Amino acid sequence: MNYKKRLDGRKFDELRPIEAKAGVIARADGSGYFKIGNTIAYAAVYGPRELYPRFMQNPEKGIIRVNYNMLPFSSKGNRVRPGGSRRSQEISMVTEKALLPVLDLSEFPNSVIDIFIELPQTDAGTRCAGICAASIALADAGITMKDMVSSISVGRVDDQVVVDLNYDEEAYDAPVADVPLAFLNKSKEISLLQMDGDITEEQLFKAVEMGKKACEKISKIQREALKNKYK
Hints:
By secondary structure, the protein is of the alpha+beta class. It has a single domain, classed as Ribosomal Protein S5, domain 2, CATH 3.30.230. It contains 4 helices and 9 strands. α1 crosses α2 and α2 (126-140) runs parallel beside α4. It starts with 17 loop residues before the first strand and ends with a helix.
């Protein structure tokens, strides 16, 4: 086991510093800001509003649409090409699926709720930060939610299981696995689990348990951000 100390000095189960705010975009129906380490995500919610074109409408329930976008010079790695990409489409889709379990869209027949996630600065964990910001934004918009969705990346660096990988750990010269997770904190259900890299079954179960505890901390920060808006 060569990775005995994290590159930034954190403990293996320690999160990067977190900051969260609600109501940061004046003209949105709801908005959220979530910063973890050097990764910053803004989310804006518009709606519910009538869905066009009409043939896409569902008289029984509404839909949500997520648009995830990293700005061109946001990345610590290579420059992000402006405009849509397969990666942004994939993250938009998994973000939508991570948020759906807490929403009762039967309240909004024939409607759409649009969620725009922008990342002006990134250092790993972007989809997780986007999900956390979007959850704050939905609550800020007054959308009925069964729970907050909290998200964090876990995984392995060499043979060590860690929480909240940063860019330098993702690029570390050893076997690395990155596992983005999202949890519904009351029920402890998992609404997102992806994996990039190789990890053993034992390491994965350990990582998920560490991620669950980390998301409990994140959920408290999200709720505090909403409370602070109305203080």
